[in-house]
Amino acid sequence: MTTRTFRIMVRGVFDGLTDEQRAELLAAASEHDVLHAAFTREGHLSYDLAARAAFTFRFLDEGEAEEDILEAAERAEQSAQAWLTERGYGYKNLRSQAEDLSQAALGKRQRRAAHTAR
């Protein structure tokens, strides 16, 4: 069996942050800038509190079967919840979206590169 790679995005909104928590997040904002967002095994958090209270965690996971994507999405949500809870950050509207890269459509450049690699 081949290994499938999953990209999972867990989105939500910070809720009920104290002034101290908000200042803490703003101080670390450069580490969580959306322009530096990446899909990682441990999960990468991005947000822009100056614009809005929304955040996104990006996770990378693997599985062997198509249905493993559901477990990967659940693990990602649990990891995001744990990270937020450990720091005492309130949140709401948590939801995830997962993509199996083996099922993703190739873009025009990727198709051309795959064709010339043959």
Tell me what the structure shows.
The chain has 3 helices and 4 strands. The protein has helices spanning 19-27, 68-86, 108-116; strands at residues 4-14, 44-47, 54-63, 91-100. The chain has a 4-stranded antiparallel beta sheet with strand order 2-3-1-4, covered by helices on one side. A hairpin with a 6-residue loop joins strand 2 and strand 3. The longest helix is centred in the middle third of the chain and has 19 residues, at 68-86. The two termini are 22 Å apart. The relative contact order is 0.26. Mean pLDDT is 89; it is low at 110-118.
- Inertia-based shape: elongated
What is Rg? 17 Å
The whole-number mean of residue pLDDT values reads 89
How much strand? 25-35%
Oligomeric state of shown chains: single chain
Features:
elongated, alpha+beta, 118 residues, disordered C terminus, 3 helices, 4-stranded antiparallel beta sheet, 4 strands
Give me a quick take on this structure:
With 118 residues, the chain is of the alpha+beta class. The chain is built from three helices and four strands; from the N terminus they run E-H-E-E-H-E-H.
Itemize the secondary structure elements and their pairings:
Blueprint: E1 4-14, H1 19-27, E2 44-47, E3 54-63, H2 68-86, E4 91-100, H3 108-116
Antiparallel strand pairs: 1-3, 1-4, 2-3
